[in-house]
Amino acid sequence: MKVSTDAQKIRELLERGVEEVIVRTDLEKKLQSGKKLRIKLGIDPTGSDLHIGHAVVLRKLRQFQECGHQAILLIGDYTAMIGDPSGRNETRPLLTSEQVKVNMKTYLEQAGRVIDLTAVEVRHNSEWYGQSNFMKLFMELTGKITVARILDREDFKKRLKADEDIRMQEILYPVLQGYDSVALRADVELGGNDQKLNLLMGRRVQRAYDQTEQDVMTVSLLVGTDGEKKMSKTYGNFIGLLDSPEDIFGKTMSIPDSLIIQYFELATSASASQIADYKRALVAGTNPRDVKMKLAEMFVAELSGQDKVTAARQRFVAITQDKAKPTDIAEIKPSAYDIVTVLVESKLVTSSSEARRAIEQGGVKVDDTKVDSIDLKVKKGSVVQKGKRFFVKVR
Hints:
With 395 residues, the protein is α/β, with parallel strands linked by helices. It has helices at 7-15, 24-33, 52-66, 97-103, 107-111, 126-129, 134-142, 147-151, 154-161, 168-184, 196-208, 245-253, 260-267, 272-283, 288-303, 309-320, 339-345, 352-360; strands spanning 18-22, 38-43, 70-75, 120-124, 188-192, 215-219, 330-332, 364-366, 369-370, 383-386, 390-394.
């Protein structure tokens, strides 16, 4: 595929959803030159699910693909066992190689909902870190980077000031991620804006290996469906790439009105003119619900297929407007019949703490009666409901 030097496409590459480009003038010249660039995006399989927050940076990778550049999707199967310390005030628990394998089982299927897998170079960093000569590489690599430079990170400074531990593997993580760029000879690396320090380490390590330093592009972090925290499975405020069309539609309709345009800009392929039309419609007084329906339809079409849109919309309308229960309620036989266990094992929530919050906020019903105690025992045959749209029948 010939590399595109179209000025409008280059401007969209450099600006849409982008927080920062280091170094912008350098990258712009490269894009204008027509040279085919190697664009790296690394994802660590520390969990099994990707969501539309991840899709923001995946879409940026797709944009580079569409302009004819070589997309590289690096699965950090080795570094995932350590865990990225960025922005954390405590050490991540170490993962086993078996846990990582389970987590990354469907990563390509999920990423393929956004990027063109037929034109991507898929790599794993166990290719160079899992070899018998790893210790030699490790000693060579760590001899090129100083500890002082790594500890200069703001997240590490805060923990040192609070007299909190920083494990050696956390110090090594950004160096290992940096060497990935050497191994792949990356021209550009993409990441969320919370990844900036790690991406800059890639430049430093490349320089130590006498390679041309990659340019760095950070993208905006997507706010979750709660409208408060960044999208994360931990907070239960995510729309998963493998969610059912009905769940994608319903979760999208639950976002605050203030996020509608941001979601269009960061997480869909809507054109700039389409987004401008939606902005004008909202300013002119169009019901935000109507514009949000367009957003939900676009998410379903792009992640699940255009043929799933009508059914997802009809189900949402039936449940929320016509107050009808779905006819295809999933069933579960839980290991225990307390309401918290039922909610967690039915996957209506992602954790016990989220179950308790949902109950405390009045968002859980059993057989149409609001639950007011986390100690409630659910009878067999009951229908448990979370929010307006999620149901499960207890066997």
